[in-house]
Amino acid sequence: MDITGRLQEQVQDAYAAQRPLRIRAGTTKSFYGRPVDADAELDLREHSGIVDYQPAELYVTVRAGTRLRELQETLAGQSQTLAFEPPCHGEDSTIGGVVACGFSGPARPYAGSARDHLLGVRILDGRGQDLRFGGHVMKNVAGYDLSRLMVGAQGSLGVLLELSLKVLPLPARHMTFVQERQMAAAIKELQRWEAQPVPLSASAWMDGQLYLRFSGAESVLAGLRACVDGDLFLPDEATRFWAQLRDQQLPFFASGSPLWRLALPTGTQPVLSELPQVLEWGGSIRWLRGDASAEEIRAQTASRNGYAIQYRGESNSQPFPPLPEPLRTLHGRVKDAMDPRHILNPGRLYTDL
Amino acid sequence: MEESTHTPAEQDFLRALAAALPAERVRSGRESLQPYECDGLSVLRELPLCVVLPQDREEVQTLLRLCRQYQIPVVPRGAGTGLSGGARPVAGAVLLSLARMNRILDIDLENRTARVQPGVRNLAISQAVRPFGFYYAPDPSSQIACSIGGNVAENSGGVHCLKYGLTVHNVLALEVLTADGEVLHLGGLTPEVPGYDLLALFIGSEGLLGIVVEVTVRLLPVPENTVVLLAAFAELGLAADAVSAIIAAGIIPAGLEMMDRLAIQAAEDFVHAGYPRDAAAILLCELDGSAEELVERVALVEEILRRQGADSIRVARDPDTRALLWKGRKAAFPAVGRMAPDYYCMDGTIPRGRLAEVLERIARWSEEIGLAVANVFHAGDGNLHPLILYDANAAGQIAAAESFGQRILALCVEVGGSITGEHGVGVEKLDSMCVQFSAAELETMHRIKGAFDPEGRLNPGKAVPTLHRCAELGAMHVHGGVLPFPELERF
Ligand SMILES: Cc1cc2nc3c(=O)[nH]c(=O)nc-3n(C[C@H](O)[C@H](O)[C@H](O)COP(=O)(O)OP(=O)(O)OC[C@H]3O[C@@H](n4cnc5c(N)ncnc54)[C@H](O)[C@@H]3O)c2cc1C
């Protein structure tokens, strides 16, 4: 259903009254980010449905409140997929929520991220104006790229109404290998694979085991089988494993202590290796659990040119690393340009955005 | 004698500049400015106040601070191969050439990245990392000349973008100077950075948001094997439909290019690539991957091409034959350039499924208007490059070519595409921007510009038209209609 008119009225009223709005969809990701300083809610869930799907043109235009599962089923019906493998944090996860948070799954280092697959958006800005940027063709450099700016902005620059996303053919087959490796050796092994022209499509390390997934035509995978060490995962088991990693359903993610997400340059040697951790994305994402202090984790990560996000945990008053000047001031100005009265998800990303 | 044309503020600025930078960094005087009076769009010319050629970031900073102090605008320039007038000088503004900042600073094989200065040529990056088995994927046809800084500013594409993405997909980090000379670090070696994706916003901003002083690019391993197929068709429409058929079959070729009869003949006369001269259109399809995979996919593409009515198919597997087949395509612009005194290169994108119909309409207009059009383009991306042939010395032909071009761009928007796929807006497509975007959307872009460059000193008058300009045009046209002849010099 298209409820643009109602949503626009709500945002315009909120603008007139200077009353902040909390944008909500499936609320499967409310654990992430800061609490929004708003009493009123803007509910996107009814704003759903596929607007235009052209399999031969490799794009789909979809309303933001469409459930991710529903979109994926439609695409799978044409043997296509969102190649960034968006995580599904629950049945109610919406494509708008995924794009707003900028989440991508295991294929991200090899197939690109959510923003890499976004072609265009229709949004409501903080004045309630209905705006379109980008489009649905693969190449479009007319004007500033305001569509990709929305990815990861967590709704603080605009309400996503419609998204045009690039879709790609589903790979014919996957093949997953498991190797016994200590963390440092696994990082080396990952470096080695990533430097080769092979169809690596996912990688992970946990509990002394390195997981490598290759995807492509039967003939390609047959050729690879002889070159990769380790045990071959049964196809069904492998599919379940990657889905559980993607959606954070593995036991590692269930335990109680705070969960940290470290973003690092790929080849970074083990960091805080005394703490339980899971590596993804060729080692460039490391999930960490445990009771090290936030200061310690931030300092260790920063010294390796990385960033640490407190992904889940009780005291989420400042989950994202602080922005240095002059970037911080620039962020404020970009926010003011899009949402001058700070009515869209204020405080979700940073207190002043 | 030049001095007399400068305002007192400009004279003060030039004096301060001479005191702040070594003499050989600054050029002024008509003769030394003339080589910079236009970019690749040579119908638009202007002389800058002066040209400055810094050698490092600190010199760029010095310049930008003086420009702030004396309120002098700045136009950045890379190699000047841009085709939309983005680097065309603005009267009274400094032309800032980044061409001398052309060092490769670091090649990091572990992280598969290269850190380079903005004046490094696109091809030089791939050449530097080739011995290690890597390359930089985006490959504009101008790659021997164009700079990586210019590529960032235009979000340039190339033959291999269909599979490997545009500049925005292959640049990891930028060091940028704001209009005030402050240093910004956008992106990074990590898969994500805190805050907004300002890197994506910056790429393609045509020199309006900041000066790129350092670029970190992602390197890819060179594919194991490559095969190029050349298919000839007796009708343009058949070739266009074959493009859609290949993509619809779930194949993403490394490159998928199309040339029509005029372009084929021009290229043949020029480089003798062995193209079938009697064909109405040819497709060049490049596939890459492992040997096993290629056997299968080449067979599949051959089958599709036959089914779509290809008269002949050549398969080139060895490097020499492949290079020869690409040579004709890569030399197509200069080859077409030999057929007429002047040509005007357009750059619109459309959904692939509308290729046949749009090419047919362009051909019909070409006959009506009496100006020939050669087509050579990135068919897989739906990125058209109609080359309109004209003679600048023949009365009315410049105007006719320009209004023909505007009509083509309006058609692209009408069928669901864009007025520019890779060459940017510059000054050339300011009017067409009014067709593609609403006033509120353009106003939002001006606000974003204001967030980065509140005083509007960087590349003024480019990329985003004023609402006033659109309003004037708006009185004359409605919704995707055909635009009247634009006065290109009006801002
Ligand atoms: C024969 C030919 C073929 C071409 N083929 C292609 C193609 O296949 N694909 C494609 O995308 N383009 C193509 N182009 C267009 C052109 O080469 C590209 O746009 C290229 O990226 C421009 O680079 P440049 O260094 O020449 O930039 P310039 O023309 O000097 O400048 C282009 C824009 O970038 C800005 N700029 C330059 N350097 C900087 C900097 N350091 N910081 C901030 N702003 C800067 C300028 O102000 C200007 O707006 C072609 C051009 C020619 C002549």
Automatic annotation (TrEMBL), chain B:
Keyword Lyase among record annotations: no
Keyword presence, Flavoprotein: yes
SUPFAM superfamilies according to UniProt: FAD-binding/transporter-associated domain-like, FAD-linked oxidases, C-terminal domain
Pfam families given in the database record: FAD-oxidase_C, FAD_binding_4
Matches recorded under Gene3D superfamilies: 3.30.465.10, 3.30.70.2740, Vanillyl-alcohol Oxidase, Chain A, domain 4
Keywords: FAD, Flavoprotein, Oxidoreductase
Secretion signal, residue range per the UniProt entry: none
Coiled-coil ranges (or none): none
Gene Ontology molecular function, alphabetical: FAD binding; oxidoreductase activity
Record domain FAD-binding PCMH-type: where: 44-222
Cofactor: FAD
Stated name of the protein: FAD-binding protein
